[in-house]
């Protein structure tokens, strides 16, 4: 697909992958509506885009997990630029580490990492079915294909995000609705360091498990990979190609893969971290 004159909505756009996607799309001639809960962050992103590409971007402060906010976000996009062609369900949270994460933390992870995707689809799919086309892009994680040491809520909800994207593709793929799911490993964003910032040994080990597993990519690199994949309309977007090999090994011998992950976890613990129990 071509991005020229397309209208894209991006949640979690105040930084990281979301802001990089917005800038990359604007460079390709798209109109972008960038949403975030942090007004100053999203306004800064949009100002930078409009400085280079006048009137290409609009900032909207919205809760990506609230249906009323999603509806308002889409309506503002339509009023500013016309019908929305692409919806990037990109907002995400890490959740608290360990088995004893609070109910509140679990609820937030489910709300932002998966229910936000469901609610966005509930708003967008009827519009796209009427038009005969649309593109839904969800940001999950390599954790959705594999797992995330130390971070159960993150791992579970990213599995769910991937599963929902698969379901959307199966259900609506023959009706003009394209779906892609982004599953990176380490990307240099605030979310990458979330576990460590909690000051918890398990959270620190979780962060180290990601940062030691592969190259830490800049968000601009990820955005370029995403646009290339969307041009080809690929479902699974893997900025770290090695994730596919890991996923295939997991599927080929699940027990062996689990054993290997336990060994990896123990290696991290021996390097000064506490073993998750």
UniProtKB/TrEMBL annotation:
Superkingdom in the source lineage: Bacteria
SUPFAM superfamilies linked: NAD(P)-binding Rossmann-fold domains (SSF51735)
Keywords noted in UniProt: Oxidoreductase
Q: Name one Pfam family in it.
A: adh_short
PANTHER family given for it? 5-KETO-D-GLUCONATE 5-REDUCTASE, ALCOHOL DEHYDROGENASE, PUTATIVE (AFU_ORTHOLOGUE AFUA_3G03445)-RELATED
Could you say which protein family the record assigns here? Belongs to the short-chain dehydrogenases/reductases (SDR) family.
Tell me what this protein is called: NAD(P)-dependent dehydrogenase (Short-subunit alcohol dehydrogenase family)
